[in-house]
Every structure is written in C-alpha cells, then in structure tokens.
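[Archive record]
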Amino acid sequence: MHEINTDILIIGGGSAGISAAVGASQFGNKVTLIEQLSYLGGKATSAEVGTVCGLYKYSKTEKAEYIVKGFAKDFAEQLSELSQTVPLNNNNGLHYLPYNIEAYKDLCLDIIKKNNVELFLNSEVIHVQISNQHLKSVTIKTATEVFEINYKTIVDCSGNGQISQLTNLPLITSDKYQAAAQIFTLSGINDITETNLNFIVMKELQKAVYDKTLNNSFERISIVQGSVKNNMVSFKLGIPIEVTFQENNVMLLREKAIEMIQTFLNYFTETVPLFKNASLQSIAPEVGIRVGMRSTGNYILNEEDVLGGRKFNSAIANCSWPIEEWVQDKRVKLRYFNLEDFYQIPADCLKSINVTNLYFAGGNISATDGAIASARVMGICLQTGFAAGELAAGQVANELEINVIKAIQLKQINT
C-alpha cells in the first residue's frame, strides 16, 4: 500500500470542505481533500438544496445586507454571478440566495484548482490511525486502490462526525434526528409567478388531504424558493420515515420519496389544469439529511447562545439564521433571535476536546440539536469551514492560536 504525505487533510468536499481547503492553503501548506462522490458541493449539489442561507442580515429591509466578508462573501457573489440569481427575502426578514446546481459544482472545482489543492474524488475513509491523542494517518479506499495519507492536521467536514466515529471519540447524537427531505423538479409547468404557483399547490394539497385522496404527509411538500423558471419548478418533499442512520435507512428514505413523488405527479397532472403537461424532470441524487452526528469540541454551542444572540471574544463566524427544525408529521418550526441581531460561533466549537490535531466544520461542529438546526445552513458552513482551515494551518505553522483567531476575525467577521 503506497503512502501520500500532506500538511492538512480535509474530509468532505461540501461547502465547509471547500472553504476549509481555502483557509488551510493560505500559508502555502500542501492541502489534500477527500470526497466520496464524483463531484464537489456536498448536500448543496447532491441533495440540490437550492438556496444559500445564513450570510445576510436578519432584517425586513428589501435589500440583502451581508453580515460577513472574506471568502464566504466572495463565494456567494461568484455563485450569484454564475447562477444569474440575486438574493431573495420573505416576510419574516430572512434573506437567501438561490443558485444553479451545476454552477455550484463548477465554482467549487475552480476554487480547488486555483488553490492547488490535491483532490481525490470517489474516495472513502475506511480507517484512521490514532496514537496518544494525536491523529497520524487515514486509509483511503477508491474503486481501484487502497492507500494511506499521512498528515499533520485534519479537518472533518463530512457532516456526520466521520473521523470521530472511526476513532471512537465522543459524539453528540440526537434522540430523534430532523426529518429528511427529497428535492425533485417538474417541467412543463405553464408560465406563472412563484407566489401564484405556491398558492395553487398549497390549496390543492390541502384539498386532497381533506378529501383523503392523499395522506397528510403530502402537506409537507413545498416549492423550493427561487426555482420557478423556464416552465420548471423544484419541490421539497418531507419524507415520513425517521432518520436513524441504521443499515438500509437511507435506502428506505429514498424509496419512500420516489413513491410519493410519483403519487404527487399523478394526482396533479390528472386534477390540476396547470400541471396537465407536467413531467418529472429530475430527482436529486441524494436524500437531504439535515443533521447527523457531531464531534464533541472544547465548547458545545447551545440554543440559548443562538436565540440570545450571544457574542464571543473568540468568534470565528457571524450567524443570522433562525433555529429551523423539521420534524415528522409537522411543518417546519422556526425560532428566532431579535430582529437585526445575530449570534456568533467561537473557535472552540471547531476543535476536538480529545485530539490535538482534529478540527471540524459545517454540520459537524460541536453543537446541540437546537443550535445545529441553525448553524448547519450553507452560509454558516462556509464560515466555519474557512475558520477551521486557518486554525489547522496555524497549528502546522506553530502560530499562537489567539493570533490565528484574530486574523480570522479580521478577514471574515469584523465588518
């Protein structure tokens, strides 16, 4: 088995992983990124989430205002240009950026190339070597080979605490995980505004459920905001099966989603004139699992921090998204902090409590169920990813952590 040496290893090529790779490469380090899929973007592309949330001020102004700067802002502006989209807002004061899936993939790949990051796609971590509270190497499996990567620091952006799972480090788990979703797209929809289409869909679903033509699970189908264009529309379907992470759970979630999509399409093409020529354009490649297991850090962000708009001296991210909880048999529940306010995430949420050279970012940060229900959104993942990459690079360079944190703050959150 051959070996590869690198300075910083990133696990996961989603929003957090891409950002971590950029942050890690700032000091001229050799950075290597491992991604299990054949393309980059994580759930933003594989589950086709459709909107970037958490970068803009929680405000009822019409125009979106960034609460961050640096890489996260640059990424959003490049994505906006490539997607030919602009930030939208709702009546509650939330602002978000719709994006094109292929543009997201292309932008991520371009960033990795420009930062000279060594990239391995279709690659899976199968073993992690740990000694005296220090991670030393990982074993990688691809379709054609198995090899080992030695590194100085590692950043886990897998979204499910993969490195902590493989090394039996303490994890933050949930008694009940948030409901999963499946994105699908229909074509052949007559020209109509998103507002009017949303009204028609909601009305027809409520009628069908009331008449018992469809069961009440179908009331959790909604339009992906900003997706109505070119006679197509994307929908988000809440899947009425619990997320357990047990064997075959994801397969069962996917099968149920496909069954419901076909039932939905059959009903709407037969009964709703607007949908008479509609057909299934695509189903996102993966089920959208919102929250997984998280690694335990030096600090565990909690919902009181979020709802109270708490600020930290060691802050590395500004966060402006409410606690967004999707549960079985109910519509989404949103819990807000004060209008015009935001909360912060401290660096200790990105650092392992047990291992000296393990950092984490994205949906894998150290946070309670309530806190991660806010901190998991893409705009926040971009920030925690970049910060984790810079913290890892600072450790390689033997920089004082307080100085690294101050540098992150100047680049990213001191607006």
